[in-house]
Structures are given as structure tokens and as C-alpha cells.
Amino acid sequence: MKEDKSLLFIDFEFTMPERKFHPQGFFPEIIEVGMVCVLNQKIERKFSSFVKPTFFPELTERCKSFLSITQEEVDHGISFYELTSILKQIDRPNKRTVITWGNMDMRVLKSNCVKHHLPNPLKGKNHDLSMEYKRFFGDKNQTGLWKAVEEYGKKGTGKHHCALDDAMTTLNIYNLVQNDKRYLEEHQPTTIGDRIDKKNILKKFAT
Does the keyword Nuclease apply (predicted)? Predict the structure, then answer.
């Protein structure tokens, strides 16, 4: 991937149904957002907030347990309308390249916008870093975010499934992959000619 100057690393957490019970018409709603804005390879801004779900406001026990999020936290979160306003403001004026781990974040954002009859606030390119990681390392299966950073011998930032911490971890993996790509570009593989001592070959045939 060509390195962009203006990047937005983003992670959302969503509502979840109980395993055996799916309310009629249920769809995942964003309940937490974490964002890291990067300009010219420097962190420009961080933002995190809980988001109050509109259509299914009561969190399931499964959701609260898995994400370690309480009902009170999302009840005091910003509205989805406020979230889209913040995203729109952050996206200006550069139309940042949005980088996520997996494609679920952008799919849920678009779905939630449709349900709220709002336009998608992010106009820049979307880039799924997990797919680049998969191609770069030749993995057959898509790797989880924290497993990927551990494969680099590093640790994730903060707590897994905390939106801002996951966004920061995505940024860290992005930087690691970019460094590896630059290293490979600067250190071209040796050719067969580089590996053969031409003087010895000529001497051998001269005798």
C-alpha cells in the first residue's frame, strides 16, 4: 500500500445479541468508538467515546460480558448523530485514508448510517490492514488483531476490545508492516551473479 500522509485508524465496538435469542430485526449498533488521527507519520489527535444505541438500547448480558462495557456507560455516551458529526469533522479537509483491522467496522458504520437516514461521514479511501497483513505474510487465514501484534513479538496497547486501545494497536501494526516493506525495498535479493566469484570462474576456465 502506498503510504498516505493523512490517516485515520479507527475501531468500533458493537452491540451483540444473546446466543440463543435474536430480537426481530436486530442489527449491530456502534456503542464505542476509538480513533487515532495521523498526519505525516505523527499522531495528531486521539478520540474515544461510548455511543448510545438507538434501536436496541438495552445491552445483552453477552455483550456486557464480552466487551466489559456497562449499560450505564453507553447510556451516558454520545448519540450516533453526534458520532457522525465528529467523524465528518475529523475527515475534513483531507479525506483521510481510513485504516481498520477487518472490514466489519466500515460495514457496520454504513449500515448504521442507512438505519439513521444519514450520509456516510467518511469520504476517504478505506483500507483493511488485516488483508494486507495476510497477503504480506502469505497467511491462508485472516489473523486476529492482537495475535498479529504478538507474532511481531510485541504486545497490544492497553486492553483488547477497548476501541481506542485497538485503534492504537492497529496503528502499531501498520508501522511495523510499513517498516518491513521499506526494508525489503531497500535490500533487494541477491542475484546469481552476486553469489558467484567471477574471478575464480575465469581462472578455472583459463587453466
Answer: yes
Which of these is catalytic: 3, 13, 29, 117? 13
Strands (E) located in the chain: 6-14, 30-39, 42-50, 97-100, 126-128
Among 97, 99, 176, CA closest to 137:
176
- Catalytic, out of 116, 127, 160, 161: 161
Is 13 one of the catalytic residues? Answer: yes
CA 129/CA 135 separation, integer angstroms: 10
* Closest C-alpha among 124, 33, 20, 37 to residue 73: 33
pLDDT value of residue 110: 97
The full set of domains in the chain, from first to last, is 6-206 (3.30.420.10)
pTM, two decimals, is 0.83
